[in-house]
Design goal:
It is a single chain. It contains 3 helices and 7 strands, in the order E-E-H-E-E-H-E-E-E-H. It is an alpha+beta fold. It has a domain at 35-122: 2-Layer Sandwich (Alpha-Beta Plaits). The strands form 2 sheets. A 5-stranded antiparallel sheet has the order 3-4-2-6-5. Strands 1-7 form a two-stranded antiparallel sheet. GO terms for molecular function: mRNA binding. Residues 1-28, 120-172 are annotated as: Disordered. This is RRM domain-containing protein. Residues 43-121 form the RRM domain.
Length: 172
């Protein structure tokens, strides 16, 4: 770039001191083994089995001790007016979200056990040689990857067999 124009790049979040020590910190995993993914603004924790009479204040009190809550969604059933049973809580840093998940997963809130985990995940990678779940081969196999011979054009020359005209092939 000769004109020294500045490019817009996605900002990489800074790595915190306690996250440098382990390789697992760069790839946070959920309880199911999938890789947690950051949303646009932060790390979102999904809390399930929330009591139907829980309030935002109850969740704010429970999860607020782990860090600054950027956003909290507690959806209500339109018909009944009660909580649907889940909440989405957004933390700005990975360490806050991890700490909240570790401390609140499988604990009681209003006499009901709640479960916490990352809301957005990417499935764990599958081995390249397995054919499960990935949709199979891409691009038709390429060179040498096919188990059956390629079809020949009617006028194509074959070095192994003597050249025959189309009329000879039809009549034989």
């Amino acid at each position: 770039m000769a004109d020294n124009t500045e490019m817009d790049l996605d900002e990489v979040p800074p790595v915190e001191e306690n996250e440098v020590s382990s390789k697992a910190s760069s790839n946070p995993k959920t309880a199911a083994g999938a890789f947690a993914v950051r949303s646009i603004e932060g790390w979102i924790v999904l809390v399930t089995n929330v009591h139907e009479e829980a309030s935002e204040e109850d969740l704010q009190d429970r999860f607020g001790e782990f860090g600054d809550i950027q956003n909290l969604h507690l959806n209500l059933d339109r018909r009944t007016g009660y909580v649907k049973g889940y909440a989405l809580i957004e933390f700005s840093t990975l360490s806050e979200a991890r700490e909240a998940i570790a401390a609140t997963n499988n604990t009681k809130l209003l006499e009901q056990t709640i479960y916490s985990d990352f809301a957005f995940v990417r499935p764990p990678p599958t081995p390249h040689n397995s054919r499960g779940g990935g949709g199979g081969r891409r691009g038709g196999g390429g060179r040498g990857g096919s188990s059956r011979p390629r079809s020949r054009s009617p006028g194509a020359k074959d070095e192994a067999a003597p050249s025959r005209s189309l009329q000879d092939r039809i009549t034989s």
